[in-house]
Amino acid sequence: MLLKKMKTLSGMQLIAVGFFLLILCGALLLMLPVSSRTGEVTPFVTALFTATSATCVTGLILVDTYTHWSVFGQLVLLTLIQIGGLGFITIGTAVSLVLRRKIGLKERGWIKESFNVLDIGGVVRLIKRVLKGTLFFEGVGALLLITRFYPKMGLGQSIYYGIFHSVSAFCNAGFDLMGKYEPYSSFTAYYDDPVVSFTLCGLILIGGIGFFVWSDLADHKWHFRKYALQTKMVLSASILLVLGGALLFYLLERNRLFADMSPVGKLCSSVFCAVTPRTAGFNTTDIASLSEGGKLLSILLMFIGGGSGSTAGGVKVATVFVLLLHLRSTLLRTTGTNIFGRRIEDATVAKASALLCIYLFAGLTATLAICGMQDFAIGDTLFEVTSALCTVGMTTGLTGQLNLASQLIIIFLMYIGRLGSLSFALSFTDHKKLTHVMQPVEKINIG
User: Fold this and answer.
1) Residue 401, number of CB atoms within 10 A of its CB
2) In 306-359, at which residue ranges do the beta strands (DSSP E only) sit?
């Protein structure tokens, strides 16, 4: 009966229901006594919060991952992170490919929705590339991290830690096991280690540029002119955000948070601070100690996020790029929204505007609700809400202080942030037949 109902769902609805069921299963597994170090049952809301954060590759936590969860619980989290990062449809398709089952037209449509690509053609080939690329990049990342963890942890534990953090970084999840040395410390002990810092940054960026961009790069190698418009936009914006963000963080924090660091430490920390808000959630510096300017810059980077159809969240770099181009064309009174010798469809501009409005509305409403229930500073609350909605996982320390109602708000934000707020809204109207009637035009004043 359930399978029949699932087959009638649209792609968007299937993804929404699938993630919900995955979160629920994860929460139930995390509640088991075997999942905690003490052997006690974890409260449902704590398990639900953690399962949502892992599945939605966010990284916000109510309990420290190492000190609270047993190895079994950590493996449950790692599984949720991997499935949540790639998408359960990708995993299901991988199983079908291994079993040599035929991928039908409906299944290809689901893959198209999951990866947020424009055409149904070539989606199976894309999935194969994603699976191979994921295995390769996570494997290389794990090996590099193992070389740095081995002297301190030994062979067995360094392998486990290398794999866990490589998967977490690639999926932009932000879960870590560094609570072994100090709870909630993340990678602060490695703030001046170039290998750890840049390996994590590389994994975050590769996972966050988008699987379509991967495929385009694989097809056209270094020939920039042959890239699709989306690839050109994502790569250009990503380079600008990383370099510009690192420079701004250095200027803002060099005499504050970075004041006592060595030149290498300042370089690593500046780059890491610019990369990790792009929905990764790790930190090598104390986020609560950032200057107000540093916190605001982090919020802006969190809100922008990564590439479409990737492991990253946020409104996506292409969305912001399109809106800025549209603003430029409006101010210059030019016809159309143009870049790299191409014109962007008006429907794409409208979709970008809708997405921005939904994220702003959801974020500000949640901030108002939490501030209304708990006496938090508005800046820290906005930081927490943006981190949840854009599936980042960074916090100034508010997560552990949230009451039940605030925790449920954050859970909902993480869920819709992973699905994409616009996709979540459209899933309710996907099967409805809406009558589009052209009404008489009347002019109004704007601005």
Assistant:
1) 11
2) 337-339, 342-344
> For residue 64, what pLDDT is reported?
94
Say what the pLDDT of residue 2 is: 46
Of the candidates 69, 23, 302, the one whose C-alpha atom is nearest the C-alpha of residue 179 is 69
Residues with Cβ within 8 Å of 216's Cβ and at least 6 positions away in sequence, in order, are 227, 228, 230, 231
Please say whether the beta carbons of 442 and 84 come within 8 A.
no
402 neighbors 410 (Cβ within 8 angstroms):
yes
Q: Which of 54-68, 151-165, 236-250, 424-438 has the lowest mean pLDDT?
A: 424-438
Q: How many domains does the chain have?
A: 1
Q: Is the pTM of this model over 0.85?
A: yes
Does some domain include residue 441?
no
The answer to whether the CB of 265 falls within 8 A of the CB of 187 is no
Q: What is the pLDDT of residues 357-411, one digit of tens each?
A: 999 999 999 999 999 999 899 999 999 999 999 999 899 989 989 999 999 999 9
pLDDT tens sequence across 163-216: 999 999 999 998 999 999 898 989 999 999 999 999 999 999 998 888 888 888
Residue type, position 307, single letter: G
Per the structure, the complete domain to which residue 235 belongs is given by 2-105+112-424
Q: Compute the distance between CA of residue 292 and CA of residue 206 in angstroms, rounded to an integer.
A: 29
Question: Which pLDDT score is estimated for 119?
Answer: 62
Neighbours of 225 (CB within 10 A): 8
**Is residue 440, in this structure, part of any structural domain at all?**
no
pLDDT for 299 equals: 95
Query: Is 442 inside any structural domain?
Result: no
Q: Is residue 431 part of a domain?
A: no
Q: How many residues are listed for the chain in this entry? A: 447
Structure tokens given for 293:
């300017």
Coil/strand/helix, residue 445? coil
Q: Pick from 304, 278, 302, 298: which is nearest to 286 by CA?
A: 298
When pLDDT is averaged across residues 284-307 and rounded to a whole number, the result is 92
* Residue 41's pLDDT band (cuts 50, 70, 90): very high
- Give bridge partners of residue 342 from the DSSP assignment: 339
**241 φ/ψ angles, rounded to the nearest 5 degrees:** -70, -40
- Please return the burial class of 350, using the count of CB atoms within 10 Å of its CB with bins 0-12, 13-18 and 19+: exposed
Strands 337-339 and 342-344 turn out to be antiparallel
Q: What tokens were used for 86?
A: 């790639």
- Among residues 158, 159, 243, the alpha carbon closest in space to that of 205 is found at 243
CA dist 161 → 71, 175, 205, 236, 296 (Å): 11, 11, 20, 33, 32
User: Which residues have a Cβ under 8 Å from the Cβ of 252 and sit 6 or more positions away?
Assistant: 291, 293, 294, 297
